[in-house]
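Structure first, sequence second, as always.
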């Protein structure tokens, strides 16, 4: 079969749908056959940030030993199968999460400064202010190479402005991404809306709306185009395309099935996130799958994902807990509550491990999609009971296209700015920045 070249921007079209494709060998510069003797151009790098709220039971999170011989702690044990693909980091500090003269409000400051390193303005009004976030520095420089400059997703829906934490606007607790100091980027919590952004020409396109009325799947609308493309591809690419289209079909079915689930029984006095799916577990995994699809198809290379808003009081009934997360996090050294917090922390790490599973299962170039990713997981709060912002819980998954040496635990001197990590990731991403918030330079020891 004659080798063909296709653009990375190639999409399948039909009835108003645009279905992005995975990264195929036919999209990479250089010869399609290894026998030709030349090296393929490297796959693009992807960068993600996953935020977990309310701090962590740190004695069950931080490994005791540095280097490659570290042992996974109880909270990190779900990452055991990915031990060689992760970098555990200790000692980093988010100083701007501290009061620094502004009094209470650690939750709002934590998420508001996590990616910006900026002291957020203490206000419950519309005059909120933070700073440009690391993800948006990258998006401003490389975002024009993909259909979406960046993707911002979450589990808990933003429920309005006003005072959410000791005089701080609710915007801070719900936002990681800031285009600039006064432009927070809202998160999308509805899997169907995220799916539409990834695979539809326009959310309000009449053909798409008509297709939804007829309950016709995205793939049904583009299958003829897919068959035409498949006939021109080599065997490996045809297999990749078939697997990918099957995954998209399965995700469509899961989203549709999720919408038919009965609403959860809400205890008196507890307000569930508006319009969120009833099942947190399925919701979180669907959003993980969508993040993977966005990276796999090169629709975007930058994503932020909040597993829950900062200060969240979600009840994790699926793991047997009836008290809210925030309530449990203020454990006052009560061992029963500390054990419950550890259970929540472990549950979150299990979802992170699931995301890594999905990234690692997708071949790309000479390795996997995970190999070309840098996915930072963590929080700007450490000890949940005392609201500390030093020695933060952080894990980086992926090798950043060969720029990160994983399989280690690295400890940094106390008060090393968290933003130094973001600067180092930006440099590896090809979007070097001289400064970011309170940064003092690049972080050593990553490679």
């Amino acid at each position: 079969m004659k080798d063909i070249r296709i653009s990375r921007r190639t999409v399948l079209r039909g009835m108003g749908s645009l279905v992005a494709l995975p990264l195929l060998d036919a999209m990479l510069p250089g010869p399609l056959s290894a026998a030709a003797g030349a090296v393929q151009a490297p796959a693009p790098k992807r960068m993600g940030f996953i935020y977990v709220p309310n701090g962590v039971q740190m004695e069950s999170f931080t490994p005791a030993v540095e280097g490659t011989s570290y042992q996974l702690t109880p909270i990190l044990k779900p990452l055991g199968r990915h031990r060689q693909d992760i970098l555990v980091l200790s000692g980093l500090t988010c100083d701007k999460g501290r009061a620094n003269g502004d009094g209470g409000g650690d939750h709002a400051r934590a998420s508001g400064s996590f990616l910006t390193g900026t002291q957020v303005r203490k206000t419950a009004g519309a005059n909120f202010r933070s700073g440009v976030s690391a993800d948006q520095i990258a998006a401003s420089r490389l975002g024009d190479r993909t259909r979406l400059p960046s993707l911002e997703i979450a589990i808990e829906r933003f429920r309005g402005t006003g005072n959410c934490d000791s005089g701080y606007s609710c915007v801070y607790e719900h936002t990681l991404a800031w285009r600039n100091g006064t432009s927070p980027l809202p998160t999308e919590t509805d899997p169907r809306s995220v799916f539409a952004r990834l695979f539809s020409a326009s959310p309000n396109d009449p053909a798409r709306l008509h297709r939804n009325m007829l309950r016709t799947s995205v793939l049904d609308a583009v299958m003829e185009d897919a068959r035409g493309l498949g006939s021109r591809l080599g065997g490996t690419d045809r297999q990749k395309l078939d697997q990918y289209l099957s995954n998209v079909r399965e995700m469509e079915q899961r989203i549709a099935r999720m919408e038919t689930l009965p609403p959860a029984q809400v205890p008196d006095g507890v307000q569930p996130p508006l319009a969120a799916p009833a099942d947190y577990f399925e919701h979180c995994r669907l959003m993980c799958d969508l993040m993977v699809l966005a990276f796999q198809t090169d629709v975007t290379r930058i994503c932020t994902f909040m597993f829950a808003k900062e200060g969240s009081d979600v009840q994790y009934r699926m793991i047997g807990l009836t008290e809210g997360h925030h309530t449990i996090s203020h454990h006052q050294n009560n061992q029963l509550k500390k054990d419950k917090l550890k259970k929540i922390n472990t549950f979150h790490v299990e979802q992170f491990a699931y995301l890594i599973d999905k990234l690692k299962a997708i071949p790309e170039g000479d390795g996997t999609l995970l190999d070309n990713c840098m996915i930072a997981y963590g929080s700007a709060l450490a000890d949940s009971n005392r609201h500390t912002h030093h020695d933060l819980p952080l894990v980086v998954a992926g090798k950043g296209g060969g720029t990160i040496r994983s399989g280690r635990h690295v400890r940094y001197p106390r008060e090393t700015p968290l933003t130094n990590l973001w600067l180092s990731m930006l440099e590896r991403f090809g979007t070097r920045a001289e400064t970011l918030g309170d940064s003092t330079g690049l972080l050593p020891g990553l490679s």
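Margin note: The CA atoms of residues 335 and 341 lie 10 Å apart.
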